[in-house]
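User: Show me a protein chain along with its predicted structure.
Assistant: Here is one chain, sequence first, then structure tokens.
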Amino acid sequence: MANHIFHPSILRAYDIRGIVDETLSLADAWSIGLSFATCLDKRGHGNHVVVGRDGRLSSMALATALCNGLVAGGARVSNIGCGPTPMLYYASISLKADGAIQVTGSHNPPTHNGFKMLMNGNVFFGKDIQDLGTISAKGPKEKSGGSLKMTPIFKSYINRLVAGVDTGNYRVIWDCGNGASGPATIAATNEISGAHTVLFGDIDGHFPNHHPNPVDPETLLILRQSVAKAKADLGIGFDGDGDRIGIVDAKGRQVSGDLLTAFLAQDIVQRHPGTPIILDVKSSDMAMDLIRTMGGNAQMWKTGHSHMKTHMKAINAQLAGEMSGHIFIKDGFYGFDDALYVGIRVLCQMAKTGQSITDFIDSLPPQYATPELRIDCPDDAKFGVMEQIAEHVSMNTASTDVTLIDGVRVRIDNGWWLLRASNTEPALVARAEGKTQVILAELVKDIEVALATAGLKWTGPKWSQNKAHGNNHDNE
């Protein structure tokens, strides 16, 4: 029995995440493994756990320590090696595992790393993570019978991605950003039709070309330039662990996650009329209205991949999407966020319908919206601040115009604004959308007033109010 207390900052809402050798250590990884195995046992599940890792410099050592901790807890571990997080999700399903853990720092800086987890086919997050911390602090007992074996899954995963697809004859630039999705992207594009160029497909934990965040406009600069130079039909970028996607159309415009979801919904709603299509609270009215017009049941839910996947299962949704680029497809797939699969599905839909993503964006009316705005707020204060703002807004706004499922979203005539606490950073997140630039400016003033009621002084964002489709980014 070895009790171990984690640094309080690493037990996050969606995963475990910290700075290597500062707040996150090999001892932490070992204890996570032991505690996870103990949790499986306490909950009466089996003991087969799949482990994968991304390409960060620290990931191999952390994965080794994690596997050793799992074995010490009596788990049967299948180590699938380095690859994107969606490959781990696929392995969990195809190998019928009881648990799954990916060592990944996702979109965070190279010095960071962490763990994304599944248990019994469900996302392991929120209270689950706090329970794991409690188990670790109490000192879980080691258990005999554990084992470890390498279990290659790469070829099976690629075969599933490309099975039966028709991707047409498009010219596509793929930017892997030296993240974990590189080899899978190269392998998949070798199997599908079209002319494909893969940028930065070699895994390099130094990320020498650019930080792999596919919805940050700055990190898409090389992709946008490459699309223009090649006169490509679109560009597709991935984050460090391959579960988030960013799209650049043939005209160099960034396609936001909510509008990408609406594009994909066109095809899916035809097969599933009236099906729920989920968007997160940061998504635009435009995307919601598009989905309703095409016959889908557009619904809004909490931001965060764990929340979205859990809600998808609860209401049997066929598609969900976040502004952050997490897109979840159940129609013909498994419902988890796989950016490479989403990219393939975009091409398949373009080939099937003849409507390119560029045509789709061209068809939309002007959109006046802020990018995602971040207001610094300490971790230990941000949720209390949001409670104050929610109370103030609820007392001064008609209940029919307020949504409180994740922060505060307020509707006015011809627009809306949002404030919520980030679950990954010491910050509040704000967005607004209006029918005109004048309305949008008024909404931003409303955000300033709301923040002031909680004692926060904010003088507004530094952004251009040019009409745009998808000039937003989010890291959650």
